[in-house]
User: What shape does this take?
Amino acid sequence: MKQYLLSVHFVEGAPTPSDEEIQTMFRETGRINDEMKAAGAWVFAGGLLPPENATVVRTQNGTATMSDGPFAETKEHIAGFWIIRCADLDAALAWAEKCAAACGPIEVRPFDELSQS
Amino acid sequence: MDLASIYRAEYGRCVATLARLLGDINLAEEAVQDAFTTALQTWQTPPPNPGAWIVTTARNRAIDRLRRESTRQARHAQALLLHQQDEPSEVGPVRDDQLRLIFTCCHPALAPDARAALTLRLLGGLDVPEIARAYLIQEATVAQRIVRAKKKIRDAGIPYRVPEEHELPDRLPPVLTVLYLMFNEGYTSTAGPLIRTDLCAEAIRLARELATLMPDEPEVLGLLALLLLTEARRPARLDPGGELVPLAEQDRSLWNRTLIAEGHDLVRRCLRRNRPGPYQIQAAISAVHTDGAATDWSQVLALYDQLLALTPTPVIALNRAVAVAEVHGPAVALAALEGIELPGYHRLPATRAELLARLGRHAAARAAYDQAIELTGNETERAYLLARRADLARPGEGA
Assistant: This one.
């Protein structure tokens, strides 16, 4: 079994979804999570607070410095993600298709197997 | 049969089988190459079934290699896997292996330009310089695309499998596109004549495999028919001096009757299914061109109308305009070209030039030929366009 990160992306400046749309999104992702759990694919999932809540920590010569804001200075930020476990990319893509219908474009990235233990 | 032709004929099949056994494309390629090296050193004359010999030898080589490297856990597991497999049999599964590999090479998660290169490499047995020549790109670019694609297949876990029925509508088109592109590159490229024939033959061979394995997919049959009917006309496409001969002026007695008969038969099988798709319609158009002594252009135009409704691309609109000229005359066709945008594609100004020339508007035709000549990268086509432009009356005489 391989593990994949399915990430949801938020684009700065994009129109904010209405309350109703957000409710639908929550309901849909909840449904997908249940389906993933039932299929044994679900490892972990969650939504993130906006990038202005991010802090970057760096160390230099053993001293940590902290700075406000996200690591990458881009207009696109990860808004949430799933970590799933499945047999191959096709299986991961099938889940991504369901997630994309609920939350917009999904990036599928395999975990480096050496880092999985 | 010499080793080079055995290599060309068996490489793809052997790699496909080994890829299934090993679950790793790179290992499969290395093992097959090792086996061919051994063959070169040991064969006095080739064995009766060279493919089976190569597969068995490659498999043993792979086991040896994995044993040597089996200190690593993963390799050890792989060696065990190989031992548990049945003897690789030559007849049934081998073809499925190739099909699995075609679908793997053409997976939509791979970059489109990597799919064709990988298919040619793994299934066609073409080496990197040959692929680079065929596509007129740098060898380093081809090598990089192939390495990257293989790495993604392994690391992202792109499966070796033929998609299930419900996935085929999404997964089959890239496979058909790759075979179609491969054939086209062979049919009109600026690469040397040898590689050109090779590419056409390879695309047809793979399309035949696909048609044998998926006889119920009309678009697969349509593609095969299209390739066969196009290939059939090749002997008449260039005159003895190597100049391009337009369809209307081709010596039809040079066309390959066997391929035409096979192509027509496939088109009829598609018609009976009545599930038309772009490749089937293009094959039907080719069938009309190769039916009888002259082309029935009204039938061609009707088919183009159908094709354009199904896939409204500018290239199809352009081809349709050529049929319009034959049925309704050059003025109507010229109007049909309005609004078609194909920046950088020489065939649009070339077609406009032909139509203007037929209308006697020679000055405008000359300008359009100039534009087309500027855009074409193929020497044979350039020579053809230069000759057509030279045929126009001198300025002042006609226009």
Observations:
- Chain B has 19 helices and no strands.
